[in-house]
Design goal:
The complex is a heterodimer. By secondary structure, chain A is mostly helical. Chain A is 67% helix and 5% strand. Chain A has 17 helices and three strands. The chains are: A mainly alpha, B alpha/beta.
Chain lengths: 417, 272
């Protein structure tokens, strides 16, 4: 009796300490999550704040005369220049005129060309149109260039600032939605650069990657998991697959360069080769995910099928595969998402080239979204750093969408047993 | 339906023909190994047609292992090796050239835990006939599904929800669905591996009734942990102990006058 009561007391005394330890453990967990979320928010905020500007572009209202002489010469930029001269008649010296022309984007003429192509009846008329400014003026409008800095230390001169102020007074300059960012290819001029070219490059690469790696990965996983005899050969294959999943991606790029470009003489910079390299990289991930998904199917289902005389292949195709499919798809989409964000292997096979045209197939020269980010991040123009962040936002949106898709697919196909 | 299976042991069947006349399954000198470990030793057993044979014994005695040898479910177990001969209608099922798929269509199995496919009730039952090509159109299939469910005593309960998932049924219903799925292929022998161990007493009673009815058409071999169950439903009983078949005979004999003292110890509850 005495002994029992002391035992109980001891337990009582220890309880508080135990509960404290449990609380503390929970707090550690919460702290870890809070830190992770904080970093994530800081990252998103930093990218968001820096990148959101690129979704707008400074446009200037110009009264242009689309005279036939210029139209026939295809001298669209000449029309823009003439209009600038008219807007600022006080500018006379050659040097100042040159400076004045630089207020407008060198691509403003393309907009005029597109306008006339759309409505040919405009030729010979005078019209007020909004045309993009140069990147420096854009930066000035967005407040990224400090007016108080000495003239020699900033990208825009006092004269340009004076012109811009005149335009502001006339309400002839404003920030508009930057459509070109989503519909254009790459450009040396930040105000003309867009992500569509690289999005299409990424799309074609991923298409090739998926078409190669999904069937190959599923077949390999199915064989290894369900049919392969368990011996040292299959053990070795398994170890190698696990090792391949951990190989740095640039190594796959080197392999792709040596094999696909030099040996098979496939075109450089093409999404076809990019997709093949990414498929090599994604394959182990898909195999591992697919095997895990198949292993998660309860053995009782296999026994049930075998027990009524289904052949091993029927057992797998009719029962195991449908049940494992959500897991396989999730693994594949996550693998694809990783491939979408991959830069290094694509650098090795030449998808890092400066390509203005938007690719229309897997054999066209192209670049990919993360490579585009890498390229822009390397450019000195201030406006490109803004576009770098904006492109990162686009990439993140795609990645988040893919991960969301993976979750939804799993939810949709998931069956209970 | 008596499907012939290919065999190369025809010379032996003629000599033992008299013995096999009313024995559906005959087992001689069967040894089973898991790797180096011997799970069953020298089993010799005759299983009569159209009767229920119960395999009893303490856990780990090898009775489930033995049951799974009869339709070669052990083939898929890594490291499992079967020696000796098991004959179905006088033909060795471990002989070379015997098609396992065909064998399993003749010898169905119902497992311990109900394991319906995550498909509709209808599809669960229809799966066997479908893969074996037993039916040529939907009407025939409907008929097989209905008869099988009827025979399994489940039809009345699920008639109006055949498209509901099989997994939505209760445990006892799921087990009867598994029985319906097994008999839809019209096997000759049905193996049951502790079919009631996961069920409550009422569901168990229903399955036992069902087994009693099924023996009119099928040869049934069941593993059970419950001696009362063996006494209630079986005509023959075989007692396994430590990988050895200790005693076999009529159920009434075994339970009233066991010859071996280990059997006596087990049925009186002293071992096991």
């Amino acid at each position: 009796m005495n002994n029992q009561s002391t035992n109980s007391e001891r337990i009582q005394a220890g309880l508080k300490k135990r509960y404290r330890a449990e609380k503390r453990f929970q707090y550690y967990g919460i702290a870890a999550i809070a830190i992770a979320i904080a970093f994530l928010l800081i990252m998103f905020a930093a990218i968001g704040i820096r990148g959101v500007g690129a979704f707008q572009q400074t446009h200037i209202a110009l009264t242009v005369t689309l005279d036939e002489a210029h139209v026939q010469d295809n001298d669209w930029q000449g029309i823009v220049k003439a209009s600038m001269r008219n807007t600022f008649p006080e500018v006379t010296s050659r040097r100042d005129k040159k400076l004045l022309y630089k207020v407008m984007s060198s691509g403003a003429g393309f907009d005029l060309q597109a306008l006339v192509k759309e409505t040919p009846s405009l030729v010979g008329q005078t019209k007020t149109v909004w045309l993009p400014s140069s990147d420096d003026i854009d930066m000035l409008m967005k407040g990224s260039i400090d007016r108080t800095v000495a003239e020699d230390d900033r990208r825009v001169s006092d004269k340009e600032i004076a012109w811009v102020d005149q335009l502001i007074d006339k309400d002839a300059i404003e920030l508009q939605f930057n459509k070109r960012f989503f519909t254009g290819g790459d450009s040396r001029e930040p105000e003309l650069a867009g992500v569509l070219g690289s999005i299409m490059g990424s799309f074609y690469s991923l298409l090739v990657c998926f078409l190669l790696s999904f069937p190959l990965g599923i077949m390999a996983a199915m064989y290894l998991e369900e049919f392969a005899p368990k011996n040292k050969w299959t053990d070795m294959v398994e170890v190698n697959i696990n090792n391949l999943a951990a190989v740095p991606s640039i190594v796959y790029g080197l392999l792709g360069m040596a094999l696909f470009l030099n040996l098979f003489i496939l075109p450089r910079s093409a999404p076809l080769v990019g997709g093949m390299v990414l498929a090599l990289m994604t394959l182990p991930t898909i195999i591992i995910a697919a095997r895990a998904a198949m292993r998660a199917v309860p053995p009782s289902i296999r026994e049930a099928a075998l027990g009524i005389g289904a052949s091993p292949v029927q057992t797998v195709l009719h029962h195991v595969l449908p049940l494992a499919l959500p897991g396989m798809l999730t693994g594949t989409i996550l693998g694809m998402a990783r491939a979408l964000g991959e830069t290094a292997p694509l650098l090795m096979i030449g998808m890092v080239a400066f390509i203005v045209d938007i690719p229309t197939g897997i054999m066209d020269s192209a670049t990919a979204l993360p490579v585009q980010i890498f390229l822009w991040a390397d450019s000195p123009e201030r406006a490109f750093s803004e576009r770098t962040s904006a492109a990162i936002i686009v990439l993140l949106v795609f990645l988040i969408t893919m991960n969301l898709g993976a979750t939804l697919l799993r939810k949709m196909f998931e069956r209970r047993w | 339906m008596n499907l012939p299976i290919q065999t190369q042991m025809s010379n032996q069947t003629s000599t033992g023909a008299a013995n096999h006349s009313n024995h559906k399954v005959t087992v001689r000198n069967v040894n089973v190994f898991y790797g180096d470990k011997k799970a069953l030793e020298n089993v010799r057993l005759d299983i009569p047609a159209q009767q229920v044979t119960a395999l009893i014994g303490p856990s780990g005695c090898g009775k489930s292992t033995f049951l799974r040898c009869i339709n070669r479910m052990n083939d898929v177990v890594d490291g499992c090796r079967v020696e000796g001969e098991i004959k179905l209608d006088g033909e060795d099922i471990y002989a070379r050239g015997v098609d396992v798929v065909h064998l399993r269509a003749r010898v169905g199995i119902v497992f311990q835990k109900p394991n319906p496919f995550p498909k509709s009730i209808y599809d669960n039952v229809a799966y066997g006939p479908k893969i074996h090509g037993l039916v040529s159109n939907r009407t025939e299939m409907d008929e097989i599904v209905m008869t099988s469910l009827e025979k399994a005593g489940l039809l009345a309960e699920v008639q109006d929800r055949l498209e509901a998932p099989g997994t939505s049924l209760s445990g006892g219903q799921q087990q009867r669905l598994c029985i319906a799925r097994a008999i839809a292929v019209q096997p000759e022998v049905i193996l049951m591996d502790e079919p009631c161990s996961a069920l409550d007493p009422i569901a168990t009673a229903r399955i036992e009734e069902l087994i009693d009815e099924l023996k009119e058409n099928f040869t049934i071999i069941m593993v059970t942990h419950s001696m009362q169950q063996a006494a209630r439903v079986s005509q023959k009983t075989a007692f396994f102990h430590m990988g050895e078949l200790v005693e076999q005979g009529d159920t009434t004999e075994i339970f009233t006058r066991p010859k071996d003292e280990r059997t006596q110890a087990y049925i009186t509850g002293r071992i096991g």
